[in-house]
């Protein structure tokens, strides 16, 4: 079953499959968030700090 999520930064629809390349997950402020790439995870964290 394919599940889809949205990137927290750009709202790109991303696959929730177990493939490590399908989704980039990072814990931000104690909550797991999904991103389409590491760059968007970094940018999201930078914006949260501002």
Structure description:
It is globular and about 35 Å long. The chain has 50 residues and is an alpha+beta fold. The protein starts with a strand and ends with a helix. β3 and β4 form a beta hairpin. The relative contact order is 0.24. It has a two-stranded antiparallel sheet with strand order 1-2. The protein contains 1 helix and 4 strands, in the order ββββα.
Main attributes of the structure:
two-stranded antiparallel ribbon, 50 residues, 1 helix, 24% helix, alpha+beta
Topology:
Blueprint: E1 4-6, E2 13-15, E3 24-28, E4 31-35, H1 38-49
Antiparallel strand pairs: 1-2, 3-4
End-to-end separation:
38 Å
pLDDT < 50 stretches: none
Mean pLDDT: 81
Summed up, the helix count is 1
| Beta-strand residue fraction | 25-35%
Biggest sheet: strand arrangement? 1-2
Which value, in Å, is the CA radius of gyration? 11 Å
Based on DSSP secondary structure assignment, what is the total number of beta strands? 4
Quickly give the structural class: alpha+beta
């Amino acid at each position: 079953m394919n599940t889809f999520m949205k990137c927290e930064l750009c709202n790109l629809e991303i696959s929730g499959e177990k493939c490590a390349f399908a989704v980039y997950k990072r814990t931000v402020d104690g909550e797991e968030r999904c991103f389409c790439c590491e760059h968007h995870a970094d940018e999201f964290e930078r914006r949260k700090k501002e």
